[in-house]
Write a structure and sequence with these properties.
The chain has 119 residues and is α+β, with helices and mostly antiparallel strands. The protein has helices at 4-22, 61-70, 75-85, 107-112; strands at 26-29, 32-39, 46-50, 57-58. It has a domain at 4-85. The chain is built from 4 helices and 4 strands, in the order αββββααα. A hairpin with a 6-residue loop joins β2 and β3 (46-50). α1 (4-22) crosses α3. The longest helix is centred in the N-terminal third of the chain and has 19 residues, at 4-22.
């Protein structure tokens, strides 16, 4: 059963998370859409946060020692969710495809030459 005390604790944690987002303390991890690094409130620590549904995790002591076992998010997890859900993901860069068969007589220069990418 969810108690009033639990709801109050979550509301306070959400307020702190919103402040972290406002202060610019959430940094997305390039290439990993569900990961962020979140700076703590006084700026002395950074925590790695994963917000993948069912696999949420934060490296902060509060999450590791208390919240994880209780199934509750820490303020860093909430801040990452708020920030990453409102951050548009950049489009994937076009990838140049190498030929599947390479003529050995063409040499290394042909393999390493820059490829044109169709727009």
């Amino acid at each position: 059963m969810v108690t009033a005390k639990m709801v109050q604790a979550l509301a306070a944690r959400l307020d702190k998370a919103e402040l972290l987002v406002t202060d610019g303390a959430v940094f997305p991890v390039a290439g990993l859409a569900d990961y962020a690094v979140v700076r703590n409130g006084d700026g002395t620590q950074m925590y790695l946060v994963r917000i993948t549904d069912g696999h949420e995790n934060c490296t902060c002591p509060d999450y590791q020692q208390r919240q994880k076992a209780a199934g509750m998010p820490c303020k860093h997890l909430l801040a990452a969710q708020l920030a990453l859900e409102n951050t548009p993901q950049p489009p994937a860069a076009p990838v140049a495809m190498l030929p599947t068969k390479i003529d050995p007589s063409a040499g290394l220069a042909a393999i390493m030459a820059p490829r044109k990418v169709a727009a």
